[in-house]
DNA sequence: AAAGGCGCCAACCGCAGTGTC
DNA sequence: TGACACTGCGGTTGGCGCCTT
C-alpha cells in the first residue's frame, strides 16, 4: 500500500513511516508544536525532510483526523463544492472537519469522480431540484414570522435528525449514480444528528477559527492580516470560498428536509 | 492455486504564494 | 526591491491488497 522505506542521497528517509517515527513526530508536536517544519525533524530525532513531517502530521497523525467511511453528507458536500470550486481541495477540506485535502482528493479520484462522470445529469438534476426547493422554501419562510425559533437552521437540522432510518437511506439513492446502492453506509438517526452537528460546527469553525488563539493554527492556516482585521489577497480567496461553502451547507440542509418530506422528491 | 490486473491510498514532487532579510 | 527561505497546494506515482481469470 505504501512506498518501501529508503534513504536518498542526502541521507533523508523516504517512503512509509514506521510506528516509531510516528510516535516521535506526534510526541514532539504535541509537546512543542510545529514552529518550523524544516528544523523540526532534527529536533524530533527524525531523518525526514520537513515537508514529509508536515504531510504526515496533517494527513495522518493530527488528533482530529477522521479516516475512511465518508458519510453521504460529506460526499454530497465534496461533489457540490468541487462543482463550484474545482480542484481547490484545501478549500473543500476546510468545510469537512477532520478530512485532509489529500484524503478528499483521493476519495474524489477513487470514488466520486467516477460516479459523477457515469451519470452527470443525475447530479445536475438533483442540484437543480435542491435549488428549486430552496427557492420555494425561502419564499415560504419569508411568509412566516421572523421571530419563530423553528425557522432557524439549527432547529430544522435537529428536526430532520429525528427521522426514521428507512426514510433517510432510501432517499439518498440519487448519490449512487450507477443505480447501485451506496455500500458500507449505515444511515442512522445518530449519524444524521452527528453529521449535521459536524456541518454546523464546520461552518461555525470557518468563521471563528482565524481568531482562535492557537498560534499553530493561525500560523499555518490564516494570514496575520485576517487576525488584524485587515484585508489581503488571501482573505479574498477565503471569501471566494465562503459563498460556495455556505451554498453547499444549504444544499445539505435541503436534502435533509427532502428526506423529511417523502412527497417532495421521487 | 497461481498469475495478472486493477483499485485505492500514502507519500512524493514541483510549483506558486508569502514572508523575511 | 530583489533574493532567498519556508510553507502550502495540487498533481502524480509506487506498491500493497483484493479481485478476477
UniProtKB/TrEMBL annotation:
Record's subcellular location: Nucleus
Signal peptide: none
Domain HTH myb-type: 9-61, 62-116
Residue span, Myb-like domain: 9-61, 62-112
One GO cellular component, as annotated: nucleus
Biased composition (Polar residues): 146-168
Molecular function, one GO term: DNA binding
Keywords: DNA-binding, Nucleus, Repeat
Pfam families: Myb_DNA-binding
Region (Disordered): 142-168
Gene3D superfamilies, A to Z: Homeodomain-like
Alphabetical list of PANTHER family matching this protein: MYB FAMILY TRANSCRIPTION FACTOR, TRANSCRIPTION FACTOR MYB8-LIKE
Name of the protein: Transcription factor myb14
Organism: Quercus suber (Cork oak)
Taxonomic placement: Eukaryota, Viridiplantae, Streptophyta, Embryophyta, Tracheophyta
Gene: MYB14_1
Amino acid at each position: 500500500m505504501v512506498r518501501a522505506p529508503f534513504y536518498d542521497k542526502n541521507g533523508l528517509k523516504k517512503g512509509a513511516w514506521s510506528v516509531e517515527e510516528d510516535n516521535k513526530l506526534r510526541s514532539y508536536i504535541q509537546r512543542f508544536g510545529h514552529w518550523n517544519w524544516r528544523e523540526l525533524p532534527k529536533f524530533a530525532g527524525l531523518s525526514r525532510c520537513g515537508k514529509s513531517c508536515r504531510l504526515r502530521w496533517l494527513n495522518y497523525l493530527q488528533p482530529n483526523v477522521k479516516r475512511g467511511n465518508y458519510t453521504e453528507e460529506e460526499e454530497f458536500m465534496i461533489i457540490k463544492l468541487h462543482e463550484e470550486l474545482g480542484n481547490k481541495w484545501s478549500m473543500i477540506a476546510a468545510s469537512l472537519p477532520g478530512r485532509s485535502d489529500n484524503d478528499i482528493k483521493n476519495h474524489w479520484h477513487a470514488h466520486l469522480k467516477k460516479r459523477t462522470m457515469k451519470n452527470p445529469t443525475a447530479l445536475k438534476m438533483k442540484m437543480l431540484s435542491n435549488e428549486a426547493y430552496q427557492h420555494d422554501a425561502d419564499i415560504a419562510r419569508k411568509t412566516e414570522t421572523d421571530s419563530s425559533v423553528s425557522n432557524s437552521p439549527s432547529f430544522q437540522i435537529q428536526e430532520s435528525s429525528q427521522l426514521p432510518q428507512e426514510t433517510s437511506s432510501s432517499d439518498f439513492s440519487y448519490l449512487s449514480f450507477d443505480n447501485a446502492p451506496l455500500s458500507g453506509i449505515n444511515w442512522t438517526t445518530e449519524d444524521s444528528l452527528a453529521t449535521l452537528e459536524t456541518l454546523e460546527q464546520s461552518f461555525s469553525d470557518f468563521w471563528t477559527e482565524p481568531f482562535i488563539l492557537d498560534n499553530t493554527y493561525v500560523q499555518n492556516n490564516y494570514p496575520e492580516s485576517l487576525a488584524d482585521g485587515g484585508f489581503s489577497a488571501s482573505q479574498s480567496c477565503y471569501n471566494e470560498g465562503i459563498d460556495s461553502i455556505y451554498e453547499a451547507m444549504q444544499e445539505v440542509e435541503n436534502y435533509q428536509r427532502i428526506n423529511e418530506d417523502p412527497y417532495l422528491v421521487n
